[in-house]
Write a structure and sequence with these properties.
Strand content: 15-25%
Helix content: 25-40%
CATH class of one domain: Alpha Beta
Strand order of the largest sheet: 2-1-3-4-5-6-7-9-8
CATH topology of one domain: Rossmann fold
Distance between the termini: 160 Å
Length: about 650
Amino acid sequence: MEAKKLFWLNTGVLLVMVVMRCQGYYNVGQFDFVSDYVAFYDVRLITLLDSGMDDDGRRNSWSKKLHSQLVRQHHIYISLCPQRTPNGTGNTGFSLGNEGLIVGRLQTHSDLVLFSNVFSTADSHLSWLLLADQGFPDLLKEIYLPLNNKVTIAASDTAGTIISLWEAYQLAKDHTFKTFRIGEWKAKGHAAQGVLPSKEKLVAAVGSQFKKRAMREQVSRHGMLRAPVDDPLLHRDDLTGLHLRCVTGQFPPMSVITDRPDGTVTNSGIIGSLFHEMATRLNFTYTCHRSRDGEWGALVDGQWTGVIRDLVDNVADVCGSTLDVTQERAQVVTYLLPLLTDGYRLFMRRPTTSDDKWNAYVKQFSIGTWLLVVTAYFAVVLVLYWTSNRSPDQCSLSFTDSATVILTFFAGQGTSFPLMSASCRITALMGLMLHVLLLAYYTSDLVSSLTAGPPDPKLSTIQDVYNSPSFELGFVRGTSLQYFFKESTDITLREIWQSIEGKKDVVLTRSIEEGIERVMKDSYIFLEWRLPVLFNYGHDCRLLMLPTSYFDVQTSLTVRKDSPLIPVFNKVILEILSSGLLEKWQRDWSVEAGDCARTRVEPVGMKAVLGPFFLMALAVALSGCLLAGERLRRRGGKIERF
């Protein structure tokens, strides 16, 4: 008898619910759940997403009833997002805030269309709560929920006394849904009635599984809610074999690529190791290619080049090497967490003795010192000439003979002219003393410069390079340096860019290798990021790095703009950085730099002695000319010898 009464009681309740639904009333338990959900997460701003109509064309009023209940129980701001614009054109005119919670339904096809239209244009960081029933897995098949969505689905039983919370996402549009049951709400004083969407049913529909989350339980006004309190995006770390398209370039030791016969490349190096570790932890695969034009990415005549262009054109999903972070690039792509920070340095060829073939034997003294030496020489010549012609004890010397005698003293030689007077001998001692001074200072500097090489140039800054007409400045084309120069607040840097832009086909290179090759051959100074140059050429003491650093920038992996993979990638990058693996890979790919600070002893080449031998040849030629002139004069008298 009692069982029969209970049967009729449940039947009556169900009939009342059906009638209420037909009249435009809805599951009151869902409204109570929303009230407790708002209190649980302390939501202050709510947007109600209401289509205004059921599938059968009847006007509904669920949002008004929910609005009325929330206003009575909470101090919150509530707005309504309508389906139509005020002009009645039928076009969607949605106005969503940048924060808070958006509450909508996912029970009918009209609900699905409205949610799909709004969700596809809304910011990905917005939080959603969709009120659904046990049929929501079938509706999910018609929409795309990316990996980074923050949608919570509240699936209610028939009576609205037990509601299960779910999350769902797709790795890509052609992938099936992955769903996770994350929580549950139970109404106060009610036993579970009806049937929940069971785990088995969802497995058959979309492949569900449970996930471990940081949970909290709270008893509120209408029931008990158990729900997660962490970021849902941090737990979507299994990409289940998702295949990504990677674009990269040769940039050792960051990315060391090797071409394959099928047109793809292998990616190793510091960032290559990082990317491989990310693929292992997140369970995705990838294929890497070079950028279509071989550049990294610069804005030229309004069009992007290189890696950036491949990402913008959806040719690639992620860049497998680091890119400099610039404001211009950040408008079209998204940077992940920064990995390394370093600056650009100026590189030039270290001077050698071969560079001083014309001035190797005169650069020991400054111009002022050489003028002083010449002045002292002629002063001693005049004194010797005057004393030899005034002294009664000395045979007279001509001015030419006096000059020859003092010149032989400067060269460390003696003379056959008899110097009989004391005044002439003292003058000769003055010439010999000057010889000692020249020998001490000039010879020591000459020997050291010929053996140890010339000193490093006095260039230090890019301003020095710009002011030196003998050098040409350049860098790799299609890199962030074009942006740094062009947008710099430094007038000098902008002037340098203007001079480079006029001859960029001449001074800009296609690669670091080409730039260093030009440094070794020409009077060319190359501006490049410090780390790759030191990795490839740090052992080569012919290369000199100037001390001033420019454009200290952060570098990072790059993905397509607003990619759903961003939070997942950032999470695993943070884990790798915290583990010290990046430092390990840097050590693995580091090379020992050459000890270029020690004294460099090198043999004297032909170019270094070309100048003196050329002067000797001129002297021989001059001597022959003078001999010819003397014979032509045919002087009759004998030359008196002393």
